[in-house]
Amino acid sequence: MVVSVIGGGFAGVEAAWALAESGFHVTLFEQKPVKFSPAHSYNGLCELVCSNSFKASRINSAAGLLKAEMKLLGSLTVPIAEANSVPAGGALAVDRNAFSDAVTEKITSHPLITIVNEEITEIPDGNVIIATGPLTDGGLADSIKRLSDGEPLHFFDAAAPIVTAESIDFTTAFFGARYGRGEPDYINCPFNEKVDYERFYNALITAESAPKHEIDRVYEGCMPIEVLAKRGFDAPRFGPLKPVGFTDPVSGRRPFALVQLRKETREGRLYNIVGFQTNLKFGEQERVFRLIPGLQNAEFARYGVMHRNSFINSPKLLNPDFSLRVNNNIYISGQLSGVEGYMESAASGLIAGISLARKVKNKPPLILPKTTMTGALTAYISDESVKNFEPMGANMGILPSVNEPVKGKQERYQALADRAIADLERIL
Please, what CATH class does the domain formed by 2-152+312-427 belong to? Predict the structure, then answer.
C-alpha cells in the first residue's frame, strides 16, 4: 500500500519517516523547487524560515520535554538537529542549511520513500497526511476549506533579521550568558544609557512598515518588535531586551536594556537578532537597528519579513490523532493543524504518521496521556470545548498538576517531566 504525504516541512518528513519505518511505501509530495512560497528559498526539505532555535534543551522545560518524548517515539528531526547544532547556551539551535541537507539525505535515501516535486491542488484519494504548512494556498487550500466547513483562520507572524559577525562592533558588544549560566554563546549589545534607548525606541515606533493585506491579527508568539514597542516604553525591556542577569564588562553595571544575537551557522559568521521579528521596510530596518549599540555598522545578510499564516479550527475538526472527524483517511498535521513551533509541528507529523500506520494495520491510534507534553498538546488542539482557538505551542501550563505539591518552579517542572517520561515509557 502507498500512503501520500503532502509537504516536506517538519511535519511532513516526520510523518513520511514514521510511515516508512512502519513498512509502508510513501509518496512525499513537495512543491519545491517547482514552486516556492513567499517564505521559502532553499531547495532542501525541512527548511527553517524563521528562527534557527528549537528552544530549550533541558528536560524540565516544555521544549526540552517535547524533544525528549519525540526521541522516544522515533523522531527523525531531533537527532539530526542535535548532530547539526550550533552553540546557543541552553537552547538547541542548528545550522539551518546543514540541518536541511541532513534531513533531505535521510528522506531521499530511504528505500520506501519516493519524493515527487510538484504542487498538489486537490487532496489525493486514499490515506493522506496534509502537512503543507501555514502558507497553504491555491486549490489545495480550497479543498481543505470544503472539508473544514468554512474559512481557515489566519494570523500574521514574522522573521527576525540576520547580520554578519564581522560587522558587529565588539568594543561595545560582548559575549555572555544570562546570570553566567552555560557557555557564553550569545552576543550582547547593551544600552547603558536611558537616552540611547529612548532614541532607539522612538525611531522604532515611528518607523515605516511594509504594507500588509487582509490582516486578521498578529500572533502573540511571533510579535513584531515594533508592535510590541507600541504597547509601551518598557514593553521591550520586559521582553527580548530585558537586561537582567547581565553586567556590562565595560561599564561594570547592569545595562538599561540589552539586545542579544544568536549564531545562525556553526562557523559563527551569521547572527540572528533574537526577538526582533519585524515588518519594517528594509531601509527602515537598517536605519533603526543600527541604533543598537554594537550594530551601528551592521551588515544585513537577511532582512526581517512578515507573512500570513493559516490554520484550521482544529478543536472542531480534528481527532487527537490528527485525522479529520469527517474523513479519518485524511490527516492534517503541522502548523496548519494549529500547533505552533518547529518541534511541535514535527511532533504532530510524527503522531499522525504513527497513527495512520496503526489504522491501516487495524490497530487503535496512538493517543498519548495528557501527562505527556505531546499528549497534552494533541488533546488541546482536539478539545471541542476550546473556543476562540489560537495556535498552541508546548508549555508546562497544559500539563495536569502532579499529585504531591512541589515547592519551587524548577522542582515542579522536573516532577512533571519525570512523570511524563515514565508514563510514555510505560506505553511504549
Answer: alpha beta
